[in-house]
Design a protein that fits this description.
Bound molecules: thiamine diphosphate, magnesium ion
Order of helices and strands of chain A: HEEHEHEHEHEHEEHEEHEHEHH
Shape of chain B: globular
Strand order of the largest sheet of chain A: 2-1-3-4-6-5-10
Largest interface: A-B, 51 and 64 residues
Oligomer: heterotetramer
Structural class of chain B: alpha/beta
Strand content of chain A: 15-25%
Number of helices of chain A: 11
Distance between the termini of chain A: 43 Å
Number of strands of chain A: 12
Order of helices and strands of chain B: HHEHHHEHEEEHEHEHHH
Distance between the termini of chain B: 52 Å
Helix content of chain B: 25-40%
Chain lengths: 353, 369, 353, 369
């Protein structure tokens, strides 16, 4: 099965060959490295940029306005915070011109903690991103969604942010989550598209003939069905929620896990349907928990479903402190852990109707 | 900053050839005068409208007509990467006038009517957007246009398999060059082997709102900053349309043919202060490019004082009448704020897909072709 | 009575003379203009900076680390979005160095809509600001609070954001809200500290002897007491809430209006006390309503006071679109208006216990 | 970017005087060697620790010891604006070694122990913070230190009524100069009449992670960018401690006495790749400043091979022993994340209030004096 990082690479290849992608660029995106996570190895249109995030975002906007199809990368989302104004600008180009222009670009960036990245390789970007109107925002939790969401992002005529959880880069697809057309044998796939160590000057990727697979933007995925509690989450917290659901199940709590996948637009219907069923909901993400996107979802839930709630809806998110510390103990104390999530599920289920 | 700029027409690094050559035809001089005058009359109407309460805010380019009229007449106008991409700031009235923009539309934006074609009543006046002429939406933040210019310049460079002649033109003020974004543009346009056909124009009026640039900037000329990057440049008197036209053309020809960047710094005037926020009153002690030019035309017997006065009276009258009609046009509905947050189709793909490698699925999928 | 802009000027003067302020700087902050809203006229340490927000924020940090006491201004908060990374950096200096360093700076910036500022002079900053740990954040709604909050901001050893609602710059103090020491006669005050039009080269401010007055950071103000509904708001929405409360009162709805004043730290006790009394709460601000600070307050309210709520708590905030349009109709449609607020109060009060 | 830098020792604009003059004393050469060697042994220990799983990440400065040791020995070390403010990046190991930082503390940060004095286990190794020596917290984002440097340089310039000798020193890499923040530093340090005592050092190893700077940068020398601002500069071979020491001293003396900015570009090596993320393996094809210097010392009979080998063995042994002890030190408690979000007192006011005009209420009020 492809890993997330291989799925991203395959999607970008399809983008180049069939969806008109003209540029995959950013710091160390081109040869010889092909991305600090190997996500852009072997791509025909990949190139290295100067070390200048503002130049990367601005140039991507310009390329898009110039009729090209850029996929720009910010090496770590931690380094996108000097360009929030440009992201707002991109999100406002269609609106400010009253529909005269559109800006079809994809901004790709690794997010979140989980790799002992210390203060500046652990930031989340979902709360910041959802504050920027005019952008569509997606965040996969597995290889197949990474592939399908990235194809949709590329095909969309609007700016789309593709947030990749760092901690899941090497995560493999589940048994029935194979990318249509990928080889059955993992090692075969690796030999085809993973660049060798050492000299790569003569290496070329041998791309498998993967098929189109578009995950519609704005459509959630129910990863697990349950009657007692709903967890609304995305990205790196999806596997955490799944494990916690397993634990809760041992004490008879049946948890429904919703992987939102798209944060903008987001699948409100999926949330409503599930909360109507379970009457109890936990919003889960790893971004800091003051002015957090989960708080938006919770607010809307309270405003529209107040009388269906049998327990106070909850948010579990990251600690509102200036950074995530390097030490394991610090990282664990900063973002939601399985035990805490499982406990919250039990607490919520414990509330009588 | 060095004050003797009025004597400076070009800096040592200016390329190629001397300034003196090639006087402009009478016909061209008349066209330049006509554009400058029409643009000035429009600005004065806009200022009047603002003072009468027709429009909340005015900002524009009176004092920059000589440069901008020249620029507008020389632009390779059209849609898509075979034509010039234009990243303007809020003082480009004369440029658009030269290109043939309808002054009534400008007054619509001044009065933020629903009929404003540039922003449907959303943006300030002189914040243009015209995709059919590659005019990228003008936005208020200073210098951000310099981060986008390399991108459209890449599109220009690739167009028609590299045989395209379109270039990217980006304009900004002097004080704004202190933003890192100006350096970004220099850096990205000069990448070895990846040089971009981008004409950067700094319209130096020596002010940033109330702040004299010479108090903040050590550069003798802002244009000197591009030398370290091997980018050619010129510093010119932007108040003389004859110099301005020749130098803009020279710079443009260089960028068009060499497919390399060029930085043009034009010394200009700010005749009505920064904006309506600072009163928008006429500043007597700055060179008025229109007055100076009209004197020349009179001395050279190209136009009589009377003819020019009549022309000015006619334009003023026409604009006044039009402004009355604009006043009657509808204001936007409140619910309109929800429109155009997202695009349905890939508009920018329309003219570009034949140049870009591969078809344009976004557009196709959304049936815009 | 002093206006907000005069109160700011007086506070900065006291800062220079008695609290060690060494620099008041930013674009057009120094002579001759003294700020685009006249807020820094006549100050001894005011100076004009290059047109470079990143330089302004970075230099302020450096001055603070160098033992100076800077008050830096971003001319409009709309232009601070290219420096979010630097604001995060400033907020993290103490934490990242485990308490080795602190960063005593004040960042002052006008916020919000209400002056027909169009797309780039109407942004709010409260949601963005509250996402940045390590900062204290204040936002006055009247001259006396502006004075008292700014003095406390200057005296604090941490970075403090002073967000000034543009629309209230010329708002006057109420009868018993005189700044201690300000002259009784407004015109006298104006003659003393407002720079004349025209040539100012020889003008000097004649400062009144105003006294110390510190509004503690983190302390809310109850602007109006009521039994039926609580409104939690701040800044420009305070007068809006007060007028709406008046209207609601005509139909017998008694509204309690809380002016938060400090967004970080915020006065949770004041909210709890009031909601325990009214059991109904509206959170009101003008920032865009996806991932909004009011949603944080609402979330916490739901988590901690769920069983005390007799009605679904509500948020009224700005429309989540890329900008605020210039036309009056567009601006009004983009941010909460009195009528809508009054209606929400009636709706909330309408819910039976 | 121009490759012939090894021949270049100084650029035309370098000021003042020729390079040849003033050979270094034997004692100084020995000190330089000792610092370089200690620093290299420490880096090698840190890399080993990382490979053995003691510490998640390594980044440092092997290959920059000649320059950084010189810099560290010349810094005017102390607390407050009368002393040098230091805005370093993550390759300053030898600088801190020269200043006298305890290598055990560095290993503590490597192992992110609770005892790490720079960040209490929060930050990566070589991300120093030492207020008592004006070492501003090193942070990972590239180039942001260049936006803060003008602020501390203003404090230096004011200190002791303008009679202070402290300066601000800011270091960074070559690729990072593409960020607008580098231009910001040039702009702010050169303001006419407001020039700042700031020594900017670009440590040019020709790489940004996997990207060759010459492919992205058109500048022949990055230092050329300061010419437009009237800022003096030099480009030197940073791999030769004799050149480096002389040139750093020359630059520093200029900034200290003239109270003006200076940009020093030093060509250096990157001997273990970018970081542990790229393997942290020794790169044979780059000049090793320590090897070259030891050869010189041997040829000049200043030190014998044997003596140097023994010294290296001793340092290596000491560091190994210390690393074992560090491994036993406690890790931070999880709840520690809540500590130091806010400061209780105005620490930075302690030494500064006598220079700044007016007392320091924050500090006073919070009783820190
Ligand atoms: C990023 C940003 N900062 C501040 C402002 C406010 N502002 C508008 S115009 C201006 C001065 C611009 O001066 P200059 O670049 O010389 O252009 P000019 O107006 O003189 O033509 C400023 C500070 C802005 N619009 N954008
Ligand atoms: C703002 C920012 N962008 C990207 C990165 C990731 N990154 C870390 S080091 C580096 C390369 C820096 O190259 P250079 O400035 O030459 O310094 P060197 O590492 O070569 O000493 C990059 C891109 C970062 N740390 N900060
Ligand atoms: Mg100007
Ligand atoms: Mg480098």
């Amino acid at each position: 099965m492809a890993t997330v990082v291989q799925a991203v690479r395959l999607a970008l290849h399809v983008g180049e060959e069939r969806l008109g992608v003209t540029d995959v660029f950013g710091q160390d995106v081109g040869p010889p490295l092909g991305g600090v996570f190997t996500q852009t190895q072997g791509l025909r249109t990949a190139w290295n940029s100067p070390l200048d995030e503002r130049g990367i975002v601005g140039t991507a906007i310009g390329l898009a306005l110039g009729g090209q199809r850029p996929v720009a990368e910010i090496q770590f989302c931690d380094y996108a915070f000097n360009s929030i104004d440009l992201l707002k600008l991109a999100g406002g180009i269609c609106w400010s011109s009253a529909g005269d222009w559109n800006c079809p670009m994809v901004l790709m960036t690794p997010v979140g903690s989980g790799i002992r990245g210390s203060i500046y390789h652990s930031h989340s970007f979902d709360a910041q991103a959802t504050r920027i109107p005019g952008w569509k925002i997606v965040m996969p939790s597995n290889p197949l969604d990474a592939y399908g969401l990235l194809l949709s992002a590329i095909a969309d005529p609007n700016p789309v942010m593709f947030l990749v959880p760092k901690a899941l880069m090497r995560a493999k697809a589940g048994p029935n989550e194979r990318i249509p057309g990928e080889p059955d044998d993992d090692r075969a796939l690796s030999r085809m598209i993973d660049a060798p160590l050492g000299d790569r000057s003569r290496w070329r990727a041998d791309w498998p003939r993967v098929e189109d697979y578009f995950v519609p933007l704005g459509k959630a995925r129910i990863c697990r069905e349950g009657r007692h509690v709903t967890v609304v989450t995305y990205g790196r917290m999806v596997p955490v929620a799944m494990t916690a659901a397993e634990q809760a199940a041992t004490t008879g709590v049946e948890t429904e896990v919703i992987d939102l996948r798209s944060l903008a637009p987001y699948d409100w219907d999926a949330i409503v349907t599930s909360v109507r069923k379970t009457n109890r909901v936990l919003f889960l993400n790893e971004d800091t928990d003051v002015t957090n996107f989960g708080e938006h979802l919770l607010r809307r839930t309270v405003e529209e479903l107040f009388y269906e709630l049998h327990a106070p809806p909850r948010l579990l998110a990251g600690a509102h402190v200036p950074g995530i510390g390097l030490a394991d103990s610090l990282e664990r104390a900063s973002v939601p852990q399985v035990e805490k999530v499982a406990q919250s599920l039990r607490d919520l289920a414990g509330h009588a109707a | 900053m060095h004050q003797g700029f009025r004597n400076v027409t070009t800096s040592p690094s200016r390329e190629p050839g001397p300034v003196e050559e090639g006087a402009l035809s009478t016909e061209l001089l008349l066209r330049l005068h006509d554009v400058m005058l029409r643009s000035r009359c429009l600005e004065e109407r806009l200022i009047r409208m603002n003072k009468q309460g027709d429009g909340f805010f005015w900002v524009g380019g009176p004092g920059e007509e000589a440069l901008n009229a020249s620029l507008g007449l020389l632009i390779h106008k059209g849609q898509g990467p075979l034509y010039d991409y234009l990243h303007f700031h809020y003082r480009s009235t004369a440029t658009l006038a030269a290109m043939g923009a309808d002054p009534v539309d400008v007054m619509r934006q001044m009065k933020n009517t629903a009929t404003d074609p540039f922003s449907a009543g959303r943006n300030f006046v002189n914040h243009y957007s015209m995709r059919r002429w590659n005019v990228v939406p003008v936005s208020s933040p200073i210098e951000v246009q310099f981060t986008m210019a390399p991108g459209t310049a890449m599109a220009n460079k690739r167009a028609n398999g590299g045989a395209g002649r379109g270039i990217t033109i980006v304009t900004g003020g002097d004080a704004g060059t202190a933003e890192g974004d100006f350096a970004t543009c220099l850096q990205w346009c000069a990448r070895p082997g990846q040089e971009l056909p981008c004409l950067m124009i700094v319209e130096n009026n020596r002010w940033g709102i109330s702040t004299l640039t010479e108090g903040q900037h050590a550069e003798r000329h802002i244009a000197d900053r591009c030398k370290a990057f091997g980018i050619k440049s010129a510093v010119i008197d932007g108040n003389d349309p004859e110099i301005a036209y020749r130098e803009v053309k020279r710079a443009m020809d260089y960028v068009r043919s060499e497919r390399r960047p060029f930085l043009l710094e034009a010394m200009v005037s700010r005749l009505y202060g920064h904006s309506s926020a600072s009163g928008a009153n006429f500043v007597p002690d700055e060179v008025d490019c229109l007055v100076a030019f009209e004197k020349k035309l009179e001395d050279r017997k190209i136009l009589t004082r009377q003819a020019m006065d009549e022309l000015r009276a006619r334009y003023t009258e026409q604009l006044l009448e039009a402004s009355k009609r604009v006043r009657e046009e509808p204001q936007p509905r409140g619910e309109a704020i929800w429109e155009h947050v997202f695009a349905e189709t890939n508009l920018v793909g329309e003219t570009a897909h034949e140049e870009s490698n591969g078809a344009d699925p976004g557009g196709v999928r959304n049936g815009s072709h």
